[in-house]
Design goal:
- This protein has 388 residues and is α+β, with helices and mostly antiparallel strands.
- The chain has one domain.
- Helix content is 34%, strand content 11%.
- It is built from 15 helices and eleven strands.
- A hairpin with a 2-residue loop joins β10 and β11.
Length: 388
Amino acid sequence: MEHVMHPLPRIEDHVKRPGFKPINPTIRFKQTDQVFMRAMRGQLGEDMKKISITTPPPHPMDRTVFGPKMIRAFLWRGCEAPVFKYKVPVDDKSKMSSHIKQVAKEFGADLVGITRLHQAFVFENDRDGNPIDVKHTYAIVMAKEMNYERIATTPSWYDHFEVGKTYQDITVLGVHLANYIGQLGYPAHASVVGNDTVFHVPLAVYAGLGEYSRMGRLITKKFGPRVRLCTVTTDLPLEIDNPIDLKVEHFCQICKKCAINCPAQSIPHNNEKVEIRGFLKWEENADDCYRFWRKNPRKWQSCTRCIAVCPWNKPNNLLHKFVSAVASRYEWSHRVILFFDDLIYGKKPKPKMQPESYEDYVMREEDYWKMVDETSEEEALLTRKMID
């Protein structure tokens, strides 16, 4: 257990009511303590050990993005960028930062922000227990939007496919940007899902992409929580961004829609925050959340219900742009916005139906359970072992 003693910048200097804030010396997180890894070790029960991240989904589309041949696994080897020996001089950090953001968007990023790489958000180890040591100076955090209609079907195979597809897209994005920085002559590393070295959400908060929410996700002004993140760490000289105040914490205090609609009831209903590893924030019950993910593995193997019902999650049209602009500026508007959100979408919105044909080619039940039995713990599909 490694403590990080140097103080983090005060989010309160930029955000009136931050969703999380450091209050004590922080403790780096071990990826071996992730709920996925604890489930694999049987710490959530034998039933959760049997259906784990080592188990390919029964739907063929899902297996293309959550399976042994998923593209992103083969990209993990490219996360550490080769450094070109002819370094580009950087005389203007502001100009370089603008350029890097433009390049990131050319590669497919929807949102980009830059912050210092705070060691508190570097994982202590990877999923195999190997120590992680990242000493870069800066973190470039990028967000990719997920499809609104697919996420609205959650929990289903359709939204699960969307999550996996976005993971693949953002892995390509991260590797592209890291290698571009390498071609400028500076070291860079892409931290992407399955091969993470850093905590993306708090870095995204410091980089000004959005705010921390009751559900533990990043809420952005443009897409709400309907994004996936990746981070490129580097020593390329850059100008950092600051946290932004979207009034999310106040909104979450009175909304609670994610908690009300959570099938596992794993999101807290009360407004009291707790200290976790030196941070004061809302605490999600990750174990109960994961148990629901695996409750009916023939129908779904994850859930994004909290994201789907969040009032900040709407199609990116003129109405949403207007409402999010008002919500992020005026706290008095929040109850009015929630009233109309409940009136139009309902306090408990029903999941949308996935396309009928999507059920046509799911594995037969007997074949699926045979595959489950054949899948060993050592075949962890989300570690480097699968491509070594």
